[in-house]
Every structure is written in structure tokens, then in C-alpha cells.
């Protein structure tokens, strides 16, 4: 997962573009699940998304993003925990 703003965090109530880059994984057999995620397109091994998490929704200032995919036919799952900050 690559946050295109150049930061390692998201900002509440702000659409942030992110890319999920797939290596040796067919994006057609994958899914991305998490609060405020919108998939924009998948092309050339990259799934482009936009994440916009509303403030006061989460219990902590971290959003969990779950990614499911297959490697050699076996279901695999990983999870990212991304910090979120408020607008300044």
C-alpha cells in the first residue's frame, strides 16, 4: 500500500489517493476492505483507491485495511493499520 500524499498517515474528512501494487498476485482474485475506501480502477498490476474516513467514526485514530488475495491458489489475508490525523 502506497499513500500518494507522501505521508505515512491519512487525514480525517480528506480524500487521500492510495495505490495497492500487486506483485505475483492477480488483482482479479483480491479484495480490499476498510472504512472509507473507494476503488477507482485496477490497471497494470495497480489498484488505485481513494480513502476518506469521516471524523468521530473510529474508536481509535487508526484505520484497519484488510487485503485478501490468492497466492498459488491459497487464500491469504493481510491487514494494514494506518494512523489518521485531524485537519489542522
Describe this structure in words.
With 88 residues, this protein is mainly beta. Helix content is 0%, strand content 56%. The chain is built from no helices and eight strands. Strands 1-3-6-5 form a four-stranded antiparallel β-sheet, with no helix packed on it. Strands 2-8-7-4 form a four-stranded mixed β-sheet, with no helix packed on it. Strand 5 and strand 6 (46-51) form a beta hairpin. The two termini are 25 Å apart. The model has no long low-confidence stretch (mean pLDDT 92).
Share of residues in strands:
over 45%
Please tell me what the overall shape is: globular
Give the proportion of residues in helices.
Answer: under 10%
Order of helices and strands: EEEEEEEE
Biggest sheet: strands side by side, in what order?
Answer: 1-3-6-5
Report the span from N to C terminus. 25 Å
Which value, in Å, is the CA radius of gyration?
A: 13 Å
- DSSP helical segment count: 0
Q: Major sheet: size, sense and barrel closure?
A: 4 strands, antiparallel
Structural class: mainly beta
What's the count of strands?
8
Amino acid at each position: 500500500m502506497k499513500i500518494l500524499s507522501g505521508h505515512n498517515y491519512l487525514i480525517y474528512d480528506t480524500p487521500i489517493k492510495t495505490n495497492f501494487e500487486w506483485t505475483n498476485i492477480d488483482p482479479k482474485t483480491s479484495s480490499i476492505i476498510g472504512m472509507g475506501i473507494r476503488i477507482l480502477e485496477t490497471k497494470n498490476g495497480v489498484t488505485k483507491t481513494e480513502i476518506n474516513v469521516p471524523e468521530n467514526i473510529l474508536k481509535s485514530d487508526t484505520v484497519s485495511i484488510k487485503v485478501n488475495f490468492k497466492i498459488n491458489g491459497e487464500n491469504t489475508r493481510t491487514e494494514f493499520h494506518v494512523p489518521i490525523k485531524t485537519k489542522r
